[in-house]
Amino acid sequence: MARVTLIWLALASAICVPIAAAGTSPLLAWRDPVYILACFAGIIALGLVLVQPLLIGGYLSGLSAYRGRRIHHWIGGALVVAVVVHVGGLWITSPPDMIDALLFVSPTPFSPWGVIAMWAIFAVAALAALRRRLGLRAQTWRIVHMPLAIIIVAGSVVHAMLIEGTMETISKAALCALVLAASVKVMADLRVWRKRTTSREESIARQ
Amino acid sequence: MTTVLLNRRNLLAAGGCVLATGVSGLLLPARAQGVVPTASMPGGANNYFKGAPTVDRIGKGGFWMSGTVRRAGDGAPLAGQRIQIWAHTTEGREHEPQSHGATLTDKNGAFRLEMPQIIPIFGQPHGHLAYDSGEFKTVFLRPVMRSAKDTSLEAHFVLQPV
Q1: Fewer CB under 10 Å: which end of chain A, C or N?
Q2: Distance CA B33, CA A10 (A)
Q3: Which of A166, A104, A99, A43 is nearest to B123 (CA)?
Q4: B41, B122, B124: which to substitute to probe chain A, counting the most A Cβ within 10 Å?
Q5: pTM to 2 decimals?
Q6: A184 CB neighbour count, 10 Å cutoff
Q7: A162 Cβ partners below 8 Å, 6+ apart?
Q8: Is the dihedral of CA A119, A125, A126, A128 positive or negative?
Q9: Is B116 an interface residue toward A (CB < 8 Å)?
Q10: Which residues are within 8 A (CB) of A157 and not within 5 positions of it... i.e. 6 or more apart?
Q11: Among partner residues B42, B88, B144, which is closest to A100 by beta-carbon distance?
């Protein structure tokens, strides 16, 4: 029980501390509500990117594999909403800067990373929504989802780290490190790059 | 009739020639022309609007934007050139009129305008400058501050006659 509480507390602080730290940023004084909303939607999105591998890896105690997977789907949807609010808010704040970013002609080095991660998030969400209709098997789904997941994680982390914005540097770096660590761990644990053997093949191999 | 031999040796030789002329082509004209014109920076024109008023100071000041304006080729300083400046500052956002102002270069081609402190926006603390008066080709610059705490920023123009 103590372990369960500890894990959930650690997750809550990994996400809430950077949000709270950004809330004390002096930059907020010179930003209007729409821009501030866009900033925080981005920070929340980064937090959600941390939750995703933890859910699928079954590291959050107290959740069954089935529940973890269901919540992973919902968080994926929330991630799409957060990214739309982030991009939409920035568009309202300064349309030419946002258009430059979306067209990959922005002078800021972090923009393409964010835009690429955004398209990867949209692609995963669209494929997940259509998975049944497209008749994607588990193996095919994994082959499609894993490279996109890597793009989302790498893109989001580089995007966040290069930005000089409302996020406080240390809590931002810690959150990014956790996102990377959780993603690497889940991929190693689930051996996502290996061809899945069915339990029957395994039992034959063992004989 | 001649046959074109496309073997590896010919290809390498031809490739080498192209590379050699290409690279020297990139390097030599710069030397021949002297001072090369400044190119507009990506995003430099964002939130620009024509005809910002010439002012002694933008808002309450506290931050210095400075630079020089020279002519392409001989590098001669250009006096009396109008440089427009705007940025996201403590007193307003980039697209707001109070964030815009213009100044003229002195006889040494230098300009210097006091403005409010620049605040990071869109992930970088940066300012915008424009030369857009017609006599020379229009140039938009978007210099980035080394640190958001800096209280000054420089940008230099080399203009090309139209």
Answers
A1: C
A2: 62
A3: A166
A4: B122
A5: 0.83
A6: 13
A7: A108, A109, A110, A113, B123
A8: positive
A9: no
A10: A176, A179, A180
A11: B42
Task: Find residue B144's DSSP bridge partners.
Answer: B126
Q: What is the residue-wise DSSP string for B32-72?
A: HHSBPPPPPPTTTTTT--S-PPB-SBSTT--EEEEEEEEET
State both tokens at A24. 């004390």
Residue B130 amino acid letter: A
Q: Are A102 and A48 in contact (CB under 8 A)?
A: no
Q: What is the pLDDT of residue B83?
A: 97
Integer Cα distance of B54 and B46 in angstroms: 20
Find the closest chain A residue to B91 by CA distance: A30
Question: Per-residue pLDDT tens for A51-99?
Answer: 999 999 999 988 888 999 999 999 999 999 999 999 999 999 999 999 9
Residues belonging to chain A: 207
ipTM of predicted assembly, 2 dp: 0.80
Q: What is the DSSP letter of B71?
A: E
Helix (H) or strand (E) holding A125: helix A111-134
- The first and second tokens of residue B46, run together, are 């964002």
Instruction: State the residue for tokens 């507009």.
Output: B40
